[in-house]
């Protein structure tokens, strides 16, 4: 990062600050200066300035003599995104209704670079062992929601993605063949759904459908569960109709003309469901 060249509008110090924030994760909840520098490609001096600035602003705190950790204030950055997007403001009651209908974990995922990120998730803990939550990231190529998101790419964009992506096998069932993945994404685009079994985590299956905003694919709606013996046809019969109905509700509500009315209706419906 130190040697990167950017246009004159680029604020290098902001880029460094964001890089340091993203250096923290579940495996690195507290970092030393050296660790932060190594994870971001910054010098120790630059990492120190960033971390001390984050401490001063309340986004980080010092742990002992050498370590730094993020504070809950960082959540405000993610909330700013969620609160600024119309979908997330009314998606939760739709997901709650879907979870009640299916009895399975349901999520909404969006694309972030070469990964999907969960932006809304309502888990059914008895059915999953995978430790994922809002903000968790998973590669696009091996997840049903990721393949739905990839289906929004043009053929040229998909070729660029497959050429650049690091296609690692997460399990013995993960498909990492570029030609095969290209064909799979094409099938997803034609069928309007994606189903995967054991590619992210052995024994876990997922089914996903697209969410559109005025014709543009912006997110994927997903249902997932542990299932040692799963058949795609069984999933399509059991889950796909409800999943498509929920995605259609969300896509409809994202229409600029219809949004206010539909948001009120979804809120009213959610209230009636809780009352019952």
From TrEMBL:
One of its GO terms (molecular function) is DNA-binding transcription factor activity. Signal peptide: none annotated. Residues 11-72 form the HTH iclR-type domain. InterPro entries: GAF-like_dom_sf, HTH_MetabolicPath_Reg, Tscrpt_reg_IclR_C, Tscrpt_reg_IclR_N, WH-like_DNA-bd_sf, WH_DNA-bd_sf. Residues 73-256 form the IclR-ED domain. Keywords: DNA-binding, Transcription, Transcription regulation. PROSITE patterns: HTH_ICLR, ICLR_ED. Pfam families: HTH_IclR, IclR_C. Transmembrane segments: none annotated. One of its GO terms (biological process) is negative regulation of DNA-templated transcription. This is IclR family transcriptional regulator. It comes from Bordetella genomosp. 10. The lineage of its organism: Bacteria, Pseudomonadati, Pseudomonadota, Betaproteobacteria, Burkholderiales.
